[in-house]
Amino acid sequence: LFRWRERLALGLANRETRLQSIIIEKEGELIAVFSTKDTPLAATRAQDIQLILELGEKAYAIREISYLSGDESIAAFRIPSNLAESANIEAFNLTTDPFRFAEAILISSRESVYGEIPVRVPPGESSQIDVESRLFNRLFGEFSPAPGDYVFSLTGELIGIMNSNNRARILSSPEFVSGQSLTLPQ
Description:
The chain is mainly beta. The protein has 2 helices and 15 strands.
């Protein structure tokens, strides 16, 4: 849950939005990964940003958010080990071979829908995959890929997160740069 204040022409407005994230494990730590689209991290007029992790009936303030190396459209925060253990959180496995299949599963971060999509590797890119959104639109109607949607392999492993309407950032070995981090207020 993000809470923040936004500067408007006639003053400040309090804002709030629920965050869709996915949990991965990296070097023994659980990390919640998410798209910064539709969060105050993408808003230029946001101030006093707070991030609250809700686990069941409990809420915990998150103090630091890190950005994916080379891509500030994807961010993450570490889930303290004591919280992960008490909430019995399980992480999604990251794919070790994102190019194994010519198709993937796209899961919307906004709606409860998913579908199979064709994917390909863009020439000269090893950290991105292209999603053929026109074919996807014809086959599945209203559901179109959008930033923040999740891409899974046909074996159920996480490939990446959509960072545009037709491209996903591969997360097979994500690096979250501490120098590119945001410390939130107490």
